[in-house]
């Protein structure tokens, strides 16, 4: 969580490319404002997609004031919190896999 974003990271059980979901509620502003904010976040994802591990789903919820930020501020704010969240999600994923045991179709 940051001043302008809530970021949720989910680690999938595959190595497919990362996916992004962007949420902007009506409290953010009118449709033009919400779409501007979502466009800026999607542009960050396109630019920094290589920094996000494959097999990750990232959901970014825009908070008040997010659409008014310039793209460099958005990138800096997300880049500051994302690595920590990915590490936590990976650790949780590893722990859940260890507790689950071997797959049922394993010999």
What does this molecule look like?
With 107 residues, this protein is α+β, with helices and mostly antiparallel strands. 45% of the residues lie in helices and 18% in strands. The chain contains 2 helices and 3 strands. A 3-stranded mixed β-sheet has the order 1-3-2. The chain starts with a strand and ends in a 7-residue tail after the last helix. The relative contact order is 0.25. The model has no long low-confidence stretch (mean pLDDT 87).
Features of the shown structure:
107 residues, 2 helices, elongated
At a glance:
With 107 residues, this protein is an alpha+beta fold.
What sequence of helices (H) and strands (E) makes up the elements? EEHEH
- From the spread of the alpha carbons, the general shape counts as elongated
Distance between the termini: 43 Å
Q: Which percent band covers the strand fraction?
A: 15-25%
Largest sheet: 3 strands, mixed
Residue-averaged pLDDT: 87
Count of helical regions: 2
Radius of gyration: 16 Å
Summarize the amount of helix as a percent range: 40-55%
User: How do the strands of the widest beta sheet line up side by side?
Assistant: 1-3-2
Q: What is the number of beta strands?
A: 3
- Secondary structural class: alpha+beta
Low-pLDDT windows of residues? none
């Amino acid at each position: 969580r940051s001043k302008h974003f809530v970021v949720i990271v989910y680690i999938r059980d595959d190595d497919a490319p990362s996916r992004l979901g962007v949420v902007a509620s009506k409290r953010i502003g009118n449709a033009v404002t919400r779409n501007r904010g979502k466009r800026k976040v999607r542009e960050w994802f396109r630019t920094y997609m290589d920094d996000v591990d494959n097999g990750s789903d990232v959901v970014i919820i825009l908070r008040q004031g997010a659409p008014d930020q310039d793209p460099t501020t958005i990138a800096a704010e997300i880049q500051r919190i994302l690595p920590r969240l990915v590490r936590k999600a990976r650790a949780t994923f590893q722990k859940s896999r260890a507790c689950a045991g071997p797959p049922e179709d394993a010999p």
